[in-house]
Amino acid sequence: MTSSSGASRRQVLAVAAAAATAPLIAGAPARAAESKGPKTWDLTVLGTSDTHGNVYNWDYYKDAEFDDSKHNDVGVAKLATLVNQIRAERTGKATLVLDAGDTIQGTPLATYYAKQEPITTTGETHPMANAMNVLRYDAVTLGNHEFNYGLPLLAQWIGQLGFPALAANAINEATGKPAFLPYVIKKVALGGYDSPTIKVGILGLTNPGVAIWDKANVEGKLVFADMIATAAKWVPVMRERGADLVIISAHGGDSGTSSYGPELPNENPVALIAEQVPGIDAILFGHAHNEVAQKFVTNTATGAQVLTSEPSKWGQRLTRMDFTIAKVNGRWQVVSKSATMLNTNTVVEDPAVLAAVRGQHAKTVGYVNQVVAQSSVELSAAESRYKDTPILDFINHVQTEVVTTALAGTAYAGLPVLSIAAPFSRTAVFPQGDVRIRDVAGLYVFDNTLEAVVLSGAEVKAYLEYSAKYFVTLPVGAAVDPNTISDPAVPDYNYDVISGLDYDIDISKPVGQRITRLVLPGTDTPVAADAQFVIAVNNYRRSGGGNFPGIVKTQVYNQQQEIRQLLIDWAQAKGVIDPTDFFVPNWKLVREGVPVF
Fold first, then answer.
1. CB contact burial 411-420 (16+ within 10 A = b; e otherwise)
2. Which SUPFAM superfamilies does the annotation name (predicted)?
């Protein structure tokens, strides 16, 4: 509802209630009673978010149709079928389609057209532009992952879209002005006998975490303002410029917490925006990958109920928001609003979307199925969260080797090189025999690059203590279940293991007191607090992602090499992946010195 709608909305509801309860006059037609109520129209807003490069219902890592334990489906092609069904159902009525961001990263399809055949070089239309243009979105908000491949590729993709891309809080550092379109106001015909129009304002908010996560791409070019303050700035402007209804499309969750420290604005402020900024009717949001069908938040200034909804991830769900509106004293008012969630596993893929991306999908499938090496045994990541495994050591070995070679002959050549890796995937496997690009991509699912910094022994210990908060506390004697051993509030990608030192994690002890043994490899010599180490680490973590202590430092190595490609190159050069070449068990979970596994 509008910011000034308190009394007006009560008037609408009072008139509607009176119409519903008024007694019928004998002999009068029923429509006479109905005519006493205000005439209403309806508007439907459909929302997607975090599609992450999914067009086909396809798992490129398994080379098979996507499936999971809940039998979800994925992809814009599935979303398009649902959208088209609703559009057909609502023929002659108003329907808008919005997306809340994280679109051009997340699958080998998206990576291929950013890295192997980048659209900035070929001029080819990005597969996500092809797919989304067929679906005919009305607007998309930029997510943080839109910035992963640099501003030139982002600009090229935006230019290929047949609809606006929004990010009000991404500011050009040189000019102080919005770097992208902040909002649009769409004049929408409501249909019906006289088909009145309503002006719908759509404000896009991207995530401030871009300043950390993609620092290399945006530093000195863009700054990212607080999402709450930005909404407070632009919502009144949109109202003044005629917006009858205001919807925010926000790439941030609603938890009110951040994965990074307090130096940046809140990462997940959607509930706070709804609560603190007057004049908002609804918020479509994303980023957290949660399914929030319908949640109302009370605005503290007006008492208005702000409708919020988040449609999961990867095209698994479609948000449907329905608004009933009426004109009272010449102004549009919201009479009612609600949201429901639709599951894409109930429909087939839209053939027009499939056709638009078929060639690019086929090229990607061919690429990821190239054999890069032979594995002497099967290597699985299933236990990598709580056991030292060869497949995670493979990542650390390659990272260590690359950094060691690069630093030869420099002032850092004499320092031991440690390496950090996280168990990104619980399902990654290198099969015995042929290992393909998709197997390596399934192990290292993010487009991170390799960097290195110098840490002291004390900083390494503090880093490991922070990482060890991943585990729940399990006293000696308590049952241990690998499925529940980790704190659900800490994602797998924010648990790191380090190679190059030997250490124990005592999960019976409180967080912050768990690294009970940290020694030089193969010895009982404790790591000195002032010892110096080079740490091979990915750019996400080194930039502050996950808020790990001590790691945000000037790099001693940064050649912008993608870690996934380094793993592929190493495997191709060796021809054989044999754990005897790189597996060095160096850490374990314990309770009072007794191994847990």
1. ebeebbbbbb
2. 5'-nucleotidase (syn. UDP-sugar hydrolase), C-terminal domain, Metallo-dependent phosphatases
Return the pLDDT at 260: 82
Answer yes or no: are the C-beta atoms of 250 and 286 closer than 8 Å. Answer: yes
- The encoded tokens of residue 492 equal 């797998």
Q: In sequence order, what DSSP letters do the residues of 429-482 get, joined into one string? A: EE-SEEEEHHHHHHHS-S--EEEEEEEEHHHHHHHHHHHGGGBPP--TTS---G
Nearest to 135 by CA among 189, 206, 87: 87
Mean pLDDT over the full length of the chain: 93
Q: What is the pLDDT of residues 355-384, one digit of tens each?
A: 999 999 999 999 999 999 999 999 999 999
Sequence-ordered list of residues with C-beta below 8 angstroms from that of 365, at least 6 positions apart, any chain: 58, 60, 63
Sheet (strand 197-205) strand order: 183-189, 197-205, 245-250, 282-285, 305-311, 291-298
Angle made by CA atoms 251, 256, 261, in degrees to the nearest 5: 90
Three-class secondary structure of residue 161 per DSSP? coil
The pLDDT value recorded for residue 21 is: 31
Per DSSP, the three-state class of 111 is helix
DSSP 175-241: T-SBSSB-EEEEEEE--SSS--EEEEEEEEE--TTHHHHTHHHHTTTEEE--HHHHHHHHHHHHHHT
Give tens-digit pLDDT for 417-472.
999 999 999 999 999 999 999 999 999 999 899 999 999 999 999 999 999 999 99
Residue type, 79: L
Residue bearing tokens 């508007």? 43
**Mean pLDDT along residues 99-118:** 96
Q: Residue 180: is it exposed, middle or buried by C-beta count within 10 angstroms (0-12/13-18/19+)?
A: buried
Q: pTM score, two decimals?
A: 0.85
- Tokens of residue 329, six digits: 């004293």
CB-CB neighbours of 115 under 10 Å = 15
